[in-house]
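User: quick one
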Amino acid sequence: MADPIRAGTAPLDRLQRWMLRVVTHRDGLEAGLEASRTEGLWPEGASVLSDIVPGNDRLTPEEQLHIYAYAYLARLQETLAAEVPAAEHLLCAERFAELAGDYLHDHPSSSTSLDHLGRHLAPWLEARAGADDEPWLSAAADVVRVEQGMDRAFDHPATPAVDGTALSNLPPSAWATARLRFVAGLDVLALAHDVGPAMDAAKAGRPAELPARRTSHMAVYCRDHRRYRLTVAPLAAALLQPLLEGATLGDALQDLALRPDVDLPELLGQVGPWFQQWAGAGWIAAVET
Amino acid sequence: MQGQGRLRLQPQVTLPRRHALPELGVGVGLRMRHFGHVTSGAELGVDLFEILTENFLFTEGRPMAILEQVRRDHQIVMHGVSMNLGSTDPLDTDHLRRVKALADRIEAAWVGDHVCWTGVAGRNGHDLYPVPYTEEALAHMVERVKRAQGVLGRPLVLENPSTYLTFATDGMPEVEWIARLAEASDCALLLDVNNVYVTCRNHSLDPIAYLEQVPWERVVQHHLAGHTDHGTHCIDTHDGPVCDDVWALYRWVVERVGPITTIVEWDGDVPSFDVLEAEVARAKALRG
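Assistant: Done. Structure below.
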């Protein structure tokens, strides 16, 4: 059944569109009131604000609307800061709040859930970094990617992990076709910055330095319902990624070994410790043969 | 009429309950700060928990694991902020289906939301915006509440909001509008005592006069919470203890209507669990 109210024409619809425009304007209530008038959103028959919101003997209509306008920005800025606290720490709270206002202007929420509020934040910061030539914003985009990756991992059900013996007990004949099944939520992020030290600083409440701009890989995962991140060496990431996508151990190792930049004896010496590290971190749910 | 319970509006007056929803005692909102404590095995001085529905719709992680553990020993009521029932946007049936799935999964005692709108034209302001108390808005929301209840397969429990403005087009008092909404849509009501106080303070209304007009036969739950008093107005902040004036209103209700499931809300600067238990104990003492 269709809704009985027709968009843009019924008084209720006009009133709601007007109010949302007024109380969510990036530049505040006055700008919202002005924009709503120039955009023709005022309810029919209203010539002054008190024709819509009468106010009372203690608060003017503007003051009453300001309560909603203040709450809108404060709530959503706070939500974004809570979603990516290390990014806020890197940029400082004041700068982050200013950027959050701009971000919300460009990406107003259309979701029923505040969990989705920051879904465009990393690419938005990246684009803003390019426009403003601000390396801090580009680095913050990578921090956001890591924090949101950890959140995604957190929202997966806990998966029991196997220990390193599951791999060490694998018969040599089974290695080529064996597949590793990883715990739900584990992801390896390719980043343009080494954001680990800045995230450590945020966690410790220390001032963060500008993360070095260099390719890095960060695994994000959840263990015992706690969020974790772990820097992964480039070669280890090159092996882990296809394994996460379901490649057999044989195929993944062969592809890596054939890379011209890979020293085979060195690789063979590294693989065992990598697997032990991954098992120790609780990443491996099963070894499937 | 369905239901077995009887309400005492006056000592000599009884009203049948409209909905056969049980009286569950006094509880608190389940908040992340208390996840460890409430699953530690410690004896909890609460009868039930209320969850903010939206916090559990998109996760299978720790929050859901905690919720399922808590559910083993306690009743859960679901309270949401995103049904957007007063809006002119299309009803979000995907959201309603997700809510229903969660309610079925945890066997929630009931599902609630607010008498408000939260967004329009595809944009969500994530606030509980006031509905104009007009015939047009009433007819619109009645229809949507009916449809939402159809999707949910259960009656909705709708809460009176805290409001900070009125509209020039308002044609009737809030309490009358909500009573008509409940009657026409056959929903149940959550009477937030703090919201009654805040709204009446903000609009120079008499809270007792408000309470006297509540259709008590439809009320299945109360909220108690703290607010911030700015002198010229109050904001429903949920960041402190219930104030004495709100306790007095709660006592007024309990003395006339009897005990109704009550949740103490505390969402900002959330204190340790024992502080909430003390508020619960005070509510229980008033209920006798």
